[in-house]
Amino acid sequence: MRARLREHANPKVAAHSTRFFKTGRAGYPSGDRFLEVRVPVVRAVAREFRGAPLAAALTLLRSRLHKERLLALVLMVDLFQRGDDSARAAIYTQYAMPRTMLRYAIEKLPEPRRKAYLAGSVS
């Protein structure tokens, strides 16, 4: 997955992003590195690797590369949406999803299920 993402990297835009996002010691996000792959391309790479195990996504999630973390989140949303209750619970417990991502991932679930996820009462 990482190699496939790097095939689409744009070093010139990445250099600009490093300056724009002020990734120096005092900046946010301190120490991040950029590949600068456009979001539609990240989504296309995620489709190529649809069904990758959660462990692979969690590994990408710990990357210093900003777009690898985005790829991880796109993969996890897909796993969550396509998964059964057991798979969803695994994702939910392995990674405390940002609320926005959680809302996107659960938007098509029945209302009682959605409310349970939002309340944090899914085990």
Note down, in words, how this protein is organized.
- The mean pLDDT is about 80.
- This protein has one domain (about 1-95).
- The radius of gyration is 16 Å and the shape is elongated.
- The chain contains 8 helices and no strands.
- The two termini are about 30 Å apart.
- The longest helix has 17 residues, at about 65-80.
- By secondary structure, the protein is an all-alpha fold.
- Helix 3 (about 40-50) packs across helix 5 (about 65-80) and helix 5 (about 65-80) packs parallel to helix 7.
Secondary structure blueprint with pairings:
Elements: H1 2-6, H2 11-20, H3 39-48, H4 54-61, H5 66-82, H6 85-94, H7 99-106, H8 111-119
Gist of the model:
By secondary structure, the protein is mainly alpha-helical. The chain contains 8 helices and no strands. It has one domain (2-96).
